Amino acid sequence: MVILPHDSIIVQTLGRFLIPVVQMFGLYVLFFGQYGPGGGFVGGVILGTGMILSVLIFGHDASRSQIAKKVLHADGVGMLIFAGVGGLCMIGGGEFLNYANLEIPGLETASRRSLGIVLTQIGVAVDVAVTAISIVFSLSAEEIIEDSING
Amino acid sequence: MSQQLPAILFLLPLFAAISMPVICLKHRHWCYPISMAILAAMTLVSILNLHNVIHYGEVRYVFSGWAAPFGIEWVADGLASIILVLLSSLGLLGVVFTGPTSPKALGGRIVHYYTLILLLISALTGIVFARDLFNLFVFLEVAAIASYALVGVAGGRALFAAFRYLILGTLGASLYLLGVSFLYAVTGTLNMADLADKLPLLLSSKAVVVGLVFMFIGLGIKMAVVPFHVWMPDAYANAPDSISPILASLVTKVALLAWVRIIYWVLNVTIVINDIPILLLVAVLGALAAVIGASLALAQRDIKMMFAYGGISHIGIILIGIGQGNQTGFVGGVFYLLNDAVMQAALFFLAGVAFCHYGIRTIDDIGRVGKQAPWVIGSLIVMALGMIGLPPTGGFFGKWYIILGALEANNYVSVAAVLLSTLLTLAYFVKVFEAIFHQTSIQSDVQFGEIPLSFKLTLGVTSAAIIILGLFSSPIVQLLLNHTLPPGL
Questions:
Q1: Smallest Cβ distance to B65: which of A77, A80, A95?
Q2: B76 forms bridges with which residues in the sheet?
Q3: Predicted confidence (pLDDT) per residue in B202-259, tens digit
Q4: Cβ contacts (< 8 Å) between A77 and chain B: which residues?
Q5: Helix (H) or strand (E) segment spanning residue B346
Q6: Do B4 and A73 count as a contact with CB atoms less than 8 A apart?
């Protein structure tokens, strides 16, 4: 069973408006997490929701849903970013995730800390978004996952 | 560099696990060699880490550089380092064994199968090192989720066993988390060393007592101690043959280690709550588990079920050693834990080889192919010696120190329980050997070819390890005495 496009014109039109807004808001929440409420988890959920919305509205095969299907392969990428930032900190001589030692040349300690936390939050966001999408796909159509695994 | 070793040990399998789906997207057959290489590297690093800890003292690792009571702390002390050598080497053997036995029906999912194995091993590393109750919970859950998936991966009856494991395991994890939150509410800290300072003054608080009870029941379910063991034989017997050695030898033992950490490192040894010494409870639970597990094993015909119940009784024996509250008993318990992990791995390797190559599932089948399976029968004899606890094997010395510890504590019930469970173990192995050597029925006519190298390797190495642990028991016990004793024992 594959998800078919929604047949209501209202839903389709509103979706065209809403999805970019949702995605932008997700990015805003992700990066605003530095200064106030927000952060990787919430941002990731919103980003994932945007993509789920596009799959539900335009169907599984629409060109707008391609990104959601591609993203399924990125299971580990978020964690790789997270662990990679941690590893860079270790290479810089600090403990795992001690951003003060983030080994990126030409940065002061303060901006290293700031950059480190942003990068890990991006990693978290990617992982959460991918998980949300893969939950929806695995609930709706098992073959999609099966096909994407077996190439 | 040596300061970073605990984190490196954890990150090696984690990195490999999360990059596996990307690396092996196009080349499925790369998973097996990559996993082996990673775990071999991890074994080397863990030996290096043990060497460092023995010579230069324990390593305290604070994540993100935030100091202990506020940040998350890992401590690589002697006990953790020794268990980690065991964990990574058994993990390596388990993966070597996995190659030719992994379920054929998996297809493209084989990549995720190896991902889960590596994730399980990295989570177990986390449990071994963690000195923070909540961090411990997180890794318990990661390990548990990986094992649910691995148990159920073959489908069919395994799904049922995996689902039951999932329900009970989640119950255990929830109870543990509830207990941790009770302790946190009272003390305001999750760090073990900090808790150890604050708890003794707060033992009259009902919240602390209830929290501790919840934590022990939760971990008890995870380590399959007797009243909570029902999920374990089914899950391990129905899990794919390639995965049950890793699960049986590592998952329950590491949960037991977490329990030991909380009893000895968070609570004090001599602690008494409402007139009941905690350690006495541990010893009594252990005695029950030792006898009941072995009696249930006696009733089984399926060899994997029998070995799984044998594992339950051995958890009990380890608890008896831990629960004596003296150095001899503690060291005996830890030494027996090392032995038991090796023996459980060996037994399930054997069950895996017996099924994958000879099609043996029950005791009666063994007799039919007995003469054609020299590796199986030979290693079975060594394992039986180890399980029963006869002199050249490590099992004997483990039980020896446990009994000495129990005698030192004047705890004769524990001595009786160890001896009784030994007798029962002898009884169920006699049943196996009776089937092999006194088989009157016709030998099978089917010709079985030579068994693959990886089978010989795993059976040979684990059988040799059982003997070597016995032959070198005195230096190992000396090492344990010098480096693994908890504070105040």
A1: A95
A2: B59
A3: 888 888 889 999 999 999 999 888 888 888 888 888 888 888 899 988 998 999 999 9
A4: 22
A5: helix B327-358
A6: no
